[in-house]
Amino acid sequence: MQLRLASLALSFSSLVCACVGDHDGGGASATATVGITTVMPGSGLATLPDLQPTDGAGDSEATDGSGTSAGGTTDLLKLDLGDSADFGAANEVGCEFIDVLFVVDISASMNEEKTNLDANFPDFVNVLDAYVGDPSNEAAGYRLGVTNSSIVANKAGKSTMGLDGALFDGDNLFDDDCDMGGKLWIDGPDPKVAPTFSCLAPDPKAGCNLCTDLGRERPLDAIEMFLAKLAPGGVNEGFYRGDASLLVIVILTDEDDDVDNSTTTPAETKAALDEFVGGDERYVVVTIAGPQAAACDSVFGSADPAPTLHAFTSMVPNGMLGDICQGDLAQALDQALALIQLSCDTLPPPVG
């Protein structure tokens, strides 16, 4: 496969960032106008200086259509894509499939955020449909799976609705069940993807009677348990399609990873992903959570600071941080889609 450029201009048209891609865990602050960080340190594959709008100093800047930056002086597009001056010769890179896992916080405090996300699922699916349907791209399909960020065994009790990284089967506790066709994921493009995903993703809970969730969110443990369950004989077997696939993990939470109960660290979770897919440029992590250092509030809900999740996401070459309090999640999902498309276009072979 050759490096594909068709989707890149579209990708950058939807990216509006207000922070830098650093490597020390620093992400969006509580005062950032737009709380999105895209962290893409040097892959060596390509840079896109000729596709980015620039000012006189060479910095890329997003505008509101009048030539003024949309958020005043802080809404700057800042992507670190390496030191290559141009694309050069075509590279044998690219993905055939996009396999997307949503890790969703199911605590009661997430009601407003999940409603907001649900409203944007159809557009998310439509963009994926258009991308894989474009004959200039080589991606042939995508799949969507959902788990939650709760783990049953906790030091101070049990989160009995936790899925422990298993994919949600669509059997809802209090609402109509989702029509999954006997599978644990949804394959697209297909007209049924958007309505099925909108049913599946907002409230993925393990089935039980009179259960509660204690709010001890552990998305990093959930990711590692998800990977373990992809092994032959595991409940998630078959979801990830291997060397031809870009693995995408989307974390949605209004809390940080619970360090008092967690059995892992950001570095250990990244190492587990690196080993599983064969390199840290072969997957994408999108984290939509609270700011790094301070709580936030909005009409879409409130969120605790999330320093651990910021640290984890900032370690990932293809990582993006979205502020869950910024308002309409359509912007964060648009930027996630742009990053997914770019990462699919430039997916390298597994290391070794």
Structure description:
The structure is a single chain. With 352 residues, this protein is an alpha/beta fold. It has a single domain (94-345), classed as von Willebrand factor, type A domain (Rossmann fold), CATH 3.40.50. The protein is built from seven helices and 13 strands. The strands form four sheets. It has a seven-stranded mixed β-sheet with strand order 1-13-10-9-4-5-8, with helices on both faces. Strands 2-3 form a two-stranded antiparallel sheet. A hairpin with a 2-residue loop joins β6 and β7. The protein is globular and about 50 Å long.
What's this model, at a glance?
The protein is of the alpha/beta class and 352 residues long. 24% of the residues lie in helices and 16% in strands.
Give descriptors for this structure.
single chain; 352 residues; alpha/beta; Rossmann fold; 7-stranded mixed sheet; 24% helix; globular; disordered N terminus
**Can you tell me the number of structural domains?**
1
Number of helices: 7
User: How many E strands?
Assistant: 13
N/C terminus separation: 19 Å
Tell me what portion of residues adopts beta-strand conformation.
15-25%
Helix content: 10-25%
Biggest sheet, open or closed, and with what strands and sense?
A: 7 strands, mixed
Q: Rough shape? A: globular
Strand order of the largest sheet: 1-13-10-9-4-5-8
Low-confidence region ranges: 1-91
Annotated CATH architecture: 3-Layer(aba) Sandwich
> Taking all residues together, what is the mean pLDDT?
76
* Classification by helices and strands: alpha/beta
Please report the first level of CATH classification, the CATH class: Alpha Beta
CATH superfamily: von Willebrand factor, type A domain
Region (Disordered): 48-71
Keywords: Signal
Signal peptide: 1-18
Protein name: VWFA domain-containing protein
